[in-house]
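Query structure, 308 tokens:
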């Protein structure tokens, strides 16, 4: 079995991937900005933690040394709302941070890189800092001379993510469900366990290269997804309450001026205007031989209730 480093290993995707890779017999090391993070999902597992930051190249050397492969799943706090004052931006973390990781992997002699990318990279919408940064990161991974895969992951949901469980709980006491903008952008939501399985396959099957889409089999609009999550466990139908895009952009403009921005205009674009469908490209079935669970089953798995 391999020794695998995971950057962003305490985040949603990273921690689920770490757990599965441990269960499959791999030795797992997590790069963390904190020296001894407490991650409930990973308690009791034989995971090694190394303190470091993808924005600081010198801190990466001890983390990459001695590893066979790396899963690059890092992202800045409060993603996708950038905080330039703290250097928490797409360019600093996604682009430059990934470039630093590739250089460290080259120096340490790693044999495999798995980069966690985004499905929105394939859409024809105008340039966005997140899209530019992710595309640059993919290029860095593929030109680094190491066997590599980029997993373009769709909207991820889980019982322990920071948005959907909160939405499901709020819907139990309020009949109204906020929908950002029109909610017409499309996505193919994927359960975090399926993302973790895709990562494990990508780590273990080194003959597989290139870009692979990690998407659920059900394509829905953002409005349909939000209502489906809100409806889990609710006895009555939820009522959609659309928040006008102009109001969201105004809130984003105001948020950008606060010390810790809760919202930004770029984040509004990222959340409301990018098509994240999976109409083309190679998916999990073709690349790895497994099909992610459907949305109804996945919501039941995540929240313990059926989706009406």
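Result returned for the query:
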């Amino acid at each position: 079995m391999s020794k695998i480093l995971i950057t962003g290993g305490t985040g949603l995707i990273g921690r689920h991937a770490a757990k599965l890779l441990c269960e499959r017999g791999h030795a797992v090391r997590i790069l963390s900005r904190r020296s001894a993070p407490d991650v409930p999902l990973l308690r009791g597992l034989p995971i090694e933690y190394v303190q470091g930051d993808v924005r600081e190249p010198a801190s990466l050397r001890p983390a990459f040394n001695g590893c066979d492969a790396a899963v690059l799943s890092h992202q800045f706090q409060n993603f996708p709302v950038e905080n330039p004052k703290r250097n928490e931006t797409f360019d600093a973390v996604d682009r430059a941070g990934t470039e630093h990781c590739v250089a460290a992997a080259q120096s340490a002699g790693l044999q495999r890189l798995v980069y966690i990318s985004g499905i929105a990279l394939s859409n024809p919408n105008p340039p966005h800092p997140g899209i530019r940064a992710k595309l640059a990161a993919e290029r860095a991974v593929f030109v680094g001379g190491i066997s590599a895969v980029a997993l373009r992951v769709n909207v991820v949901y889980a019982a322990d993510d920071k948005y959907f469980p909160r939405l499901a709980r709020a819907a139990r006491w309020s009949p109204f469900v906020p929908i950002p903008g029109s909610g017409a952008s499309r996505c193919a939501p994927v359960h975090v366990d399926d993302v973790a399985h895709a990562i494990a396959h990508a780590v273990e099957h080194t003959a597989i290269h290139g870009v692979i889409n990690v998407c659920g089999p059900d394509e829905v609009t953002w409005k349909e997804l939000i209502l489906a999550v809100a409806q889990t466990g609710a006895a009555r139908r939820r009522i959609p309450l659309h928040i006008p895009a102009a109001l969201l952009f105004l809130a984003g403009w105001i948020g950008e001026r606060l010390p810790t921005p809760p919202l930004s205009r770029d984040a509004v674009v990222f959340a409301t205007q990018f098509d994240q469908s999976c109409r083309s490209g190679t998916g999990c079935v073709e690349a790895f031989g497994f099909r992610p669970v459907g949305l109804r089953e996945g919501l039941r798995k995540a929240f313990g209730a059926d989706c009406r």
